[in-house]
Amino acid sequence: MQGNEDALSVQVVRVTMPDTLLLRVQTPVTQGHSSIYVRLFGVDCGEDARKAIVDWAEVHPTPTLLVADWLRDCYGRLLGDLVDGTSSLCEYLVTQGCAEENSEHYQEVVGDLLKAEEPE
After folding, report:
1. For strand 64-72 and strand 78-84, is the pairing parallel, antiparallel, or unpaired?
2. Could you report the per-residue pLDDT of 73-97, keeping only the tens digit for each?
3. What is the pTM of this model?
4. Residue 9's Cα: distance from chain center in Å?
5. d(CA 19, CA 21)
6. I need a labelling partner for 39 at 20 to 30 A (CA). Which of 14, 72, 90, 120 fits?
7. SS in 3 state form for the chain?
């Protein structure tokens, strides 16, 4: 995961799937907002993860988005995690029993991208 001084402060808008979030990101250049989809990186979430994500987002209303090398999955979703101070959403889900760690996630995503064919 990358983290830097130009970290993106985000707001969770919706949990669209157990591992996918719709986030509102402040765009400093235009002084507006943009919406992006982010898939949680390094975890396999169960159906009960949705409620746990909502609970975490209520306690952490403006977390920071950390992304995995700006990598996207085969659907174009960024891979990342949300953090607020020392609290990580992915770690929270694992400790709550709503998700399991997936150390092979990076290789799986890169493998899917390499297998994908470009349209002619």
Report:
1. antiparallel
2. 888 899 999 999 889 999 999 999 9
3. 0.80
4. 13
5. 7
6. 120
7. CECCCCCEEEEEEEEEECCEEEEEEEECCCCEEEEEEEEECCEEECCCHHHHHHHHHHHCCCCEEEEEEEEECCCCCEEEEEEECCEEHHHHHHHCCCEEECCCHHHHHHHHHHHCCCCC
